[in-house]
Amino acid sequence: MTIADIGPQPQSFDLEKATLANDNYRAVAWSGTYLQVTLMSIPPGDDIGLESHPETDQFLRVDGGRGRVQMGSAEDQLDFDQVVEDGWAIMVPAGTWHNVTNTGDEPLRLYAVYAPVHHAANAVQATAEDAERDEQSGADEPPEWSVQPSEHASDEHA
What we know:
Elements: H1 15-21, E1 26-31, E2 36-42, E3 51-52, E4 57-64, E5 66-72, E6 80-85, E7 89-92, E8 97-102, E9 108-115, E10 124-125, H2 128-137, E11 156-157
């Protein structure tokens, strides 16, 4: 199932089906003015990577697989630790350090909703390495139609 990010226009699709069919580390499914939907697939034993988004709230929902979410106020103080699986939701407040690790033996399938928009429209990154490369090169910047905070604080990665 292929989802085309049509930008800030009305969109509708079977989100669970699209999430379960996604084999890419990250694929942007929809970019609006104020929020964005991405699909993610994390291979067994891999993780999203410890990070913090100072001005971005996130909602993640697991649609397949099993994982572990850790969150906290500092990268060395992850005092929230929860096993998650199909049907679980993860809410990440802005500025919270967080990581999601696939602890199962199949891909961890989830989708994320970011507010404000965080990634380039239509971005598809097959691996976490591709995502990191795109972020570092500037190829993964929010679209110009999205509303960003007036003083944009940089994301932090451990």
